[in-house]
């Protein structure tokens, strides 16, 4: 199959973003957050757009129909489906709304045959496959008829649907019902599922969609509302795709927000009102609400080195962030207004400026925040300490591999020792780390897999990977735009054919995830060895008790190392210069030459060992798995037991 690359110009000049347009009359706007958006957090997209539109004089209602469904099918089942890690293969959430969107299309048995993992999903949900099909074929269409029918859509001048991840088919189904009830009210779609040529194809094929925002919506939606308020249309506006009278689709490239501080604070009022009306326990079970905040857009690392498999920041990698002062004020204001301390940023990467004033001031407030950030893995122990003091308790560092060679193939800008150092000091500072092991990169060898499996037992006291699996191909990634020679037959993922059983829809244009055939140099045995090593590591960390530990206590002239990574607890002592060397290798990897230089400069080290003696000691530490080494650089693995951290 030939994949059609986007022909839509990606980003207009950053300086061309127009000011807020004049409004002829205030509009009444509805924004809709459909399943399967996570129910334990408000929509950042809807919150930002509501705040921007209301600042321009319009009235905005946000309908959180995802909350209504969570109550309808039960909060546990809802969140299991919404959080199911099979969105790139099964796309179960999308498939479940197919009948609601397109009618009785059938295909249940074929879907099950194509994806045997659906039976695993059913078991986790506590459903038979027949009950799952009943949910898809009867219950969800009837539920959607009711919740859409209960709202007077004719009162609105514009209805917008946000679509990210597995919201698209539900949004199409919702828009079709809105159009039946209020055929003259224009609809607009936006979100990551509509970026680039995906949005063009959706607006071409689905007449229930009048407009598609093909990039950032902050500017485009304001201009659409202004045009509609004066009796015009959005045709020809920047960042909007629409059908012309002759049925062709026309689009202009989007403008980006340049000054992030100029964005409004998201308005989540409707989320909390609807959550209270429906009942928090019914909608969320016992889960807390996660406030969502956006402090930056783009990726400062990706501006220089676009990770080969990453499809984020489709329409512009250029990095823009809020000032530390604005970031602090927004987080404090949102936590104060909602009386909520769990805050997740949606940024692709942490602004390194925040490691200064931002962290220090939040730490000084003494609030019991629990914040999440995506970060690069090269954070130092001191930087992790500052983040934890500020209230950052969860991070996603994009580790992806414990092979330096594979990390270079990914263009991650990190290596084995840097990744392990992050895991070590994150545990010390009580920061939870979410990371995965990815495989299937061009040029991998068996050694890349077997070397990772070999070092994993030494790391059992650190947070294990959440998942292990083959890389997926994303639209907008370097691997998609310029496939390596080893990748062939790039095609939309198989599930799309079951989700969109429509002969006149070009799946190659609407798909975000793609399958491919790879000329792998890695044997199945090597893959199985690494997979088994990951599973053993994960088994050492059951949810109901702490994992293994490797720690040390410092005494006068010695350290005591305590180890519970193996079948039996053990301990050993290191004395004199050996204790000093072990500690010196803790904060950063050290070479033999670097260690001898540091020891010579230290005031309290009476003896600097010879090169051979020092090398022999370091290699002995690697042998008993107290250290790992690569390229002549050594990193010790034990965590201090000093009171400044917790192990």
- As laid out across the biggest beta sheet, the strand order is 2-1-3-4-5-6-7
On the 0 to 100 scale, the average pLDDT is 93
Structural class: alpha/beta
- Distinct helical segment count: 26
Q: What fraction of residues sit in β-strands? A: 15-25%
Ordered list of secondary-structure elements with their pairings:
Elements (H helix, E strand, L loop, with lengths): L27 E6 L10 H12 L3 E6 H9 L1 H8 L9 H5 L1 H5 L5 H7 L2 H9 L3 H21 L8 E5 L5 H14 L5 E4 L6 H9 L5 E3 L3 H13 L10 E4 L5 E3 L17 H10 L1 H5 L6 E3 L2 E2 L22 E2 L2 H15 L3 E4 L11 H9 L4 E5 L6 H10 L1 E5 L7 H7 L5 H13 L3 E2 L2 E4 L6 H10 L11 E4 L2 E2 L3 H4 L5 E6 L2 H5 L7 H4 L2 E6 L5 H16 L10 E6 L2 E6 L6 E6 H12 L4 H10 L9 H13 L3 E4 L2 E4 L2 E2 L7
Parallel strand pairs: 1-2, 1-3, 3-4, 4-5, 8-11, 11-12, 12-13, 13-14, 15-16, 20-25
Antiparallel strand pairs: 5-6, 6-7, 9-10, 17-19, 18-19, 20-21, 21-22, 23-24
Helix pairs in contact: 1-11, 2-3, 8-9, 14-15, 15-16, 19-23
Provide a brief overview of the structure.
The protein is of the alpha/beta class and 647 residues long.
Task: Give an overview in words.
- The protein is of the alpha/beta class.
- Helix content is 39%, strand content 16%.
- It has 3 domains: 23-75 and 139-260, Rossmann fold, CATH 3.40.50.280; 290-471 and 523-539, Aldolase class I (TIM Barrel, Alpha-Beta Barrel); 550-640, Orthogonal Bundle (Arc Repressor Mutant, subunit A), CATH 1.10.10.
- The strands form 7 sheets. Strands 2-1-3-4-5-6-7 form a 7-stranded mixed beta sheet, sandwiched between helices.
- Helix 10 (197-205) links the parallel strand 4 and strand 5.
- The radius of gyration is 27 Å and the shape is globular.
- The two termini are 53 Å apart.
- Mean pLDDT is 93; it is low at 1-18.
